[in-house]
């Protein structure tokens, strides 16, 4: 007569999974107490809060692989997380308590810097600012730059294909990545850490994982491109009458500066007025108001004198033609930093002003001005008094097109009443102009439904086929990117 097995032996429980994880990576790195896990369960904006059976903190790629194999055996979904600075809920678990968060913060080693190959090999948990610093110490530039660079990680940057302020010249995270190390949904390690500019030997697996938000596997390390340090950077602000003038100025700047043009940021007058309201130490940069303000930066490999001379000739033509209404060039590093502070404080000022409806969209550069005009008008007709906080990377077609409640209104009630309506207005306009409803923040769980609505059935079927082929059990960050 056979001996009956216990229920836990026949059917592994969540407790069994957590115990096995403790054996695999050490009990100190498996967090289950509510006080220890809280920081991992809510997204940066405070929009999503989930639950987890555990927060797992592996220290090596092999430990990540071991955890994935345990998750497969116990059928536990995994939510990879970097610095938890995402804006679309892509690294937050659901409310079931049946998922586990895999925090990659302990994978924080810089494995190699190769100055002849101009590459840096880093683990997924290395903070972006640390990559920048290590590159600078080696006499090189790592150009990816974001407002959250002091806390976001390279793994998260790659998972969302982060953009930032220097995409115009250097490209986004995908363009800066040469190779990856990835733990597959089966718990195997793909070593694709090849620092090659040319590798024409089959499917481009690297690009498949970049931007996939951890739904196809977990990025554990990457080879990233480095660039020469510029000899000089020159920053300027220009006041213009309209987005159309900004587009014309962008064309003029491109003609003068070519590849030296590193940044070209567009900010509406209201953006900077809001910054001044919430942060009085950051003054409006001009004596008179201008409907649009452009922040532009040149990175020159020759000298500051050369860059300033180029700026002077460019702004002189722009002012004489009436394209630019006023302009000021930073005289030193402190003033340049002050110009960038204006730009970087816009999201902070919005948060201080109250809840708002955010959009991270992209449209072809040539359509930006028309998009702003048409969509502003549609929103004004739908919600009189709504305040538009429009800013972003005009040079690569990415706008943060945000809507603030009318002056004196209840932001929470505004969000509840108008979010669905205004999202539809904005996304319909983006679709009309052949754009994207997520330019650099990813889809996460925030935009899964909208993406499904606007993508073609063919595109969705292809994405689902890839997901099914690589992650047949659906354990990799479920509910993100694809519903």
From TrEMBL:
<dbReference type="Pfam" id="PF02913">
    <property type="entry name" value="FAD-oxidase_C"/>
</dbReference>
<keyword id="KW-0274">FAD</keyword>
<dbReference type="GO" id="GO:0022904">
    <property type="term" value="P:respiratory electron transport chain"/>
</dbReference>
<dbReference type="InterPro" id="IPR016171">
    <property type="entry name" value="Vanillyl_alc_oxidase_C-sub2"/>
</dbReference>
<dbReference type="InterPro" id="IPR016166">
    <property type="entry name" value="FAD-bd_PCMH"/>
</dbReference>
<comment type="similarity">
    <text>Belongs to the FAD-binding oxidoreductase/transferase type 4 family.</text>
</comment>
<dbReference type="InterPro" id="IPR036318">
    <property type="entry name" value="FAD-bd_PCMH-like_sf"/>
</dbReference>
<dbReference type="InterPro" id="IPR004113">
    <property type="entry name" value="FAD-bd_oxidored_4_C"/>
</dbReference>
<protein>
    <submittedName>
        <fullName>FAD-binding oxidoreductase</fullName>
    </submittedName>
</protein>
<dbReference type="InterPro" id="IPR016169">
    <property type="entry name" value="FAD-bd_PCMH_sub2"/>
</dbReference>
<dbReference type="GO" id="GO:0071949">
    <property type="term" value="F:FAD binding"/>
</dbReference>
<feature type="domain" description="FAD-binding PCMH-type">
    <location>
        <begin position="48"/>
        <end position="229"/>
    </location>
</feature>
<dbReference type="InterPro" id="IPR016164">
    <property type="entry name" value="FAD-linked_Oxase-like_C"/>
</dbReference>
<dbReference type="InterPro" id="IPR051264">
    <property type="entry name" value="FAD-oxidored/transferase_4"/>
</dbReference>
<dbReference type="GO" id="GO:0003824">
    <property type="term" value="F:catalytic activity"/>
</dbReference>
<dbReference type="Pfam" id="PF01565">
    <property type="entry name" value="FAD_binding_4"/>
</dbReference>
<keyword id="KW-0285">Flavoprotein</keyword>
<dbReference type="InterPro" id="IPR006094">
    <property type="entry name" value="Oxid_FAD_bind_N"/>
</dbReference>
<dbReference type="InterPro" id="IPR016167">
    <property type="entry name" value="FAD-bd_PCMH_sub1"/>
</dbReference>
